[in-house]
Specification:
- This protein is mostly beta strands and about 450 residues long.
- It is built from 4 helices and 33 strands.
- α3 packs across α4.
- It binds fe (ii) ion.
- Fe (ii) ion binds next to β20.
- GO terms for molecular function: carotenoid dioxygenase activity; metal ion binding.
- It comes from Nonomuraea montanisoli.
- Keywords: Dioxygenase, Iron, Metal-binding, Oxidoreductase.
Length: about 450
């Protein structure tokens, strides 16, 4: 297949990212090693999967397909995969209606799948969540009783103390940013507009015990790209600047901190330190890295790239995104930045029980390894998979009664780079040793994010 302009291959439709043609079910999956019996639940993972023969202008725009693996009492009971039946998928509904308004149900729902308050939600940042059953059937779009009027980020944060789900939505027209809060019981109890200079692609945010942190970064919405249609209407814009905003969760103004220009798809975690500073760990793309990466998945080449000599070549030579720490001091107004690791990585995860609180460990996926970062010692360890295997996001599942932060497992779907097959790898998070491997009945395309959903589901 080729891009719409017919000049370059669509890397997101080939090899380990190539979509699968259909939905299947399989039971009694072969297991190597020993699955811990307490891992009883479901691992669901979402990602774009264009229908066979349909064009796909951008890796981020294909219709969502959720892959599920059911584990129970040491057995791998089933695998199944299902497209999320959004109105875009079933009826061809368009996000932009003929009158120029937005249909927030007409979205691909392809980025994440999370449980909250008895619901399982498939998410994409431009639109409404879609509720799924524990068997991966689509219930329908969820607007929380008509209260959610716009999009919901694919990266909501569940507060481990209150059980609330904090999230946001960004708009292409005002309001550009809205903060939302779901109660532990799943009711939308707060929606608050946040002032930002313009519409940007805000993929993630951070929370601490007392604050929310906004990533107002220079990948901006471009109406001309939207009119052209098909892909992602965002591009790098040097003129926008880059800032992080610290907003009290209880209400109050946003304190903005200018930072070095960059883009961040994913935050690892954030917290307030003893001095009251806000510490944010995320995976950072330098401008040249983003400008090189974005067209490789179907994004618009930035006009300014012509002035950045050999940007794609440079980024390819130096890797792409890396773990980075911002320390924001509300007392002084200072923002300190420091790299945390040299290795190019993405998809940072942590023990969800520490969301918003100090963490020692983050886990990431490198091109051919699963990496554990010890931020106390500054060291990292990796399970190297070799050049033929690509790991997906490694989701941490804490052991029952865990006494240390890394007592538990990492779950990651690993896919053959040539597109031959996949396995669900279960690692001991303490030392990255292999606890078990579930052989999946088909290749699972490299996708985005997933969740472990323990029994009982609700
Ligand atoms: Fe993401």
């Amino acid at each position: 297949m080729s891009q719409p302009n017919g000049t370059a291959p669509s890397l997101w439709l080939e090899g380990h990212r190539a979509p699968v043609p259909d939905e299947i079910d399989a039971v009694g999956l072969p297991v190597e090693g020993t699955l811990p019996p307490e891992l009883t639940g479901r691992y669901f993972r979402n990602g774009p999967n264009p229908l066979p023969g349909t064009p796909s202008a951008h890796w981020f725009t294909g219709p969502g397909m959720v892959h599920g693996v059911r584990l129970r009492d040491g057995r791998a009971e089933w695998y199944r995969n299902r497209w999320v039946r959004t109105t875009e998928f079933t009826d061809g509904a368009r996000f932009v209606r003929p009158d120029g308004t937005f249909d927030h149900a007409a979205v691909p729902a392809n980025t994440h799948v999370v449980p909250h308050a008895g619901r399982i939600l498939a998410l994409v940042e431009t639109g409404l969540p879609y509720e799924l059953t524990p068997e991966l059937d689509t219930v329908g779009p969820c607007d929380f009783g008509g209260l959610l009027k716009g999009g919901m980020t694919a990266h909501p944060k569940e507060d481990p103390v209150t059980g609330e789900l904090l999230f946001f939505g960004y708009g292409l027209v005002p309001p550009y940013l809205t903060y939302h809060r779901l109660s532990a019981g799943g009711r939308l109890v707060e929606s608050r507009e946040v002032e930002v200079p313009g519409p940007t692609m805000m993929h993630d945010f951070a929370v601490t015990a007392n604050h929310v942190v906004w990533l107002d970064l220079p990948v901006v919405f471009d109406m001309a790209l939207a009119r052209r249609g098909g892909g992602m209407p965002f591009r790098w814009d040097d003129a926008y600047g880059a800032r992080l905003g610290v907003m009290p969760r209880a209400g109050g103004p946003v304190r903005w901190f200018d930072v070095d220009p960059c883009y961040v798809f994913h935050v690892g975690n954030a917290y307030e330190d003893e001095a009251g500073r806000v510490v944010v760990d995320g995976v950072r793309y330098r401008p040249e890295d983003f400008i090189a990466f974005w067209p490789s998945i179907g994004g618009e080449s930035d006009p300014s790239a012509a002035t950045v000599a050999n940007a794609p070549v440079r980024a390819a030579a130096t890797g792409s995104s890396r773990l980075h720490r911002w320390t924001l001091d509300p007392a002084s107004g200072a923002a300190k930045e420091e790299p945390l690791d040299d290795r190019p990585v993405e998809f940072p995860t942590h023990d969800d029980a520490r969301t918003g609180h100090a963490h020692r460990y983050l886990y990431t996926a490198a091109a051919d390894a699963i990496v554990k970062h010890d931020l106390r010692s500054g060291s990292s360890a990796a399970l190297e998979l070799g050049p033929d295997l690509v790991p997906g996001e490694a989701v941490f599942v804490a052991a029952e009664g865990a006494r240390t932060e890394d007592e538990g497992w990492l779950l990651s779907i690993v896919t053959d780079r040539a597109g031959q097959g996949s396995e669900l790898l279960v690692l001991d998070a303490a030392d990255l040793s292999r606890t078990a491997s579930v052989r999946l009945p088909r290749r699972v395309p490299a996708g985005f994010h997933g969740s472990w959903i323990p029994d009982p589901v609700s």
